[in-house]
């Protein structure tokens, strides 16, 4: 297992591919595994590695709570994809890739027939890679939105929250939950596309309604 050097472009690409269908390094909630990998990265991944960047920004939001996250820290090499992935597609890809001489012949002269064959195989290889379907990662998030006091208009607070619109964001059901002293918080569900909408953006947009909102917390975060 392992990602390689996460300070290098190659290591970050491995991490990005690994997170294409995952929200976290292990399991379905943030853990010490995420912290170990996060701390091994020198800077935020570039925008084209959007799976890694989405994960990086999400884990960064747990900076103050990282010591309390579940799990036990292990060596970085204990996390990541296995060296050999036993799937039919991977085995086929590997065989096809071995047949392709990406660097051409070592001979100074190359016959026209060999050159044409090599170019055809390169074209087939690139075509096969481009046809692999992109995975859209989605998450279901339960938010706790707290008002300032018991006199806050909760209907208006919810109206403000639902007024937030973004590509990849869908609001769901909601309810008011008592928290004490006559104060109720708004608990509201939403579904997001991970590479388009993050919890940082939601918190920034929701707390901007400062006449009604005191704070916002993530009550539950589940990969769909």
Automatic annotation (TrEMBL):
CC annotations in GO: cytosol; eukaryotic translation elongation factor 1 complex
Name of the gene: Eef1b
Source species: Ardeotis kori
SUPFAM superfamilies found in the cross-reference section: eEF-1beta-like, GST C-terminal domain-like
Stated name of the protein: Elongation factor 1-beta
CDD domains tied to this protein: EF1B (cd00292), GST_C_eEF1b_like (cd10308)
Location of the Elongation factor 1 beta central acidic region eukaryote domain: 102-129
Described function: Catalytic subunit of the guanine nucleotide exchange factor (GEF) (eEF1B subcomplex) of the eukaryotic elongation factor 1 complex (eEF1). Stimulates the exchange of GDP for GTP on elongation factor 1A (eEF1A), probably by displacing GDP from the nucleotide binding pocket in eEF1A.
Assembly, per entry: EF-1 is composed of 4 subunits: alpha, beta (alpha subunit of the eEF1B subcomplex), delta (beta subunit of the eEF1B subcomplex), and gamma (gamma subunit of the eEF1B subcomplex). Interacts with elongation factor EEF1A1.
């Amino acid at each position: 297992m392992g990602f390689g050097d996460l300070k290098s472009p190659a290591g970050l690409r491995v991490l990005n591919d690994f997170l294409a269908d995952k929200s976290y390094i292990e399991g379905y909630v943030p853990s010490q595994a995420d912290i170990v990998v996060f701390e091994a990265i020198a800077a935020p991944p570039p925008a084209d590695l959007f799976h890694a960047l989405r994960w990086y920004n999400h884990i960064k939001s747990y900076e103050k709570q990282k010591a309390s996250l579940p799990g036990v820290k292990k060596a970085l090499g204990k996390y990541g994809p296995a060296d050999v992935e036993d799937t039919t597609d991977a085995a086929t890809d590997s065989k096809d890739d071995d047949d392709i001489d990406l660097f051409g012949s070592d001979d100074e002269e190359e016959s026209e027939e060999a050159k044409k064959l090599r170019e055809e195989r390169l074209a087939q290889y690139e075509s096969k890679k481009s046809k692999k379907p992109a995975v859209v990662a989605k998450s279901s998030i339960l938010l706790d939105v707290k008002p300032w006091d018991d006199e806050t208009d909760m209907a208006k607070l919810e109206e403000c929250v639902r007024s937030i619109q973004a590509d990849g964001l869908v609001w769901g059901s909601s309810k008011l939950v008592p928290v004490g002293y006559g104060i109720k918080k708004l608990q509201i569900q939403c579904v997001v596309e991970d590479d388009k909408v993050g919890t940082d953006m939601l918190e920034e947009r929701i707390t901007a309604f400062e006449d009604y909102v005191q704070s916002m917390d993530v009550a539950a975060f589940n990969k769909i």
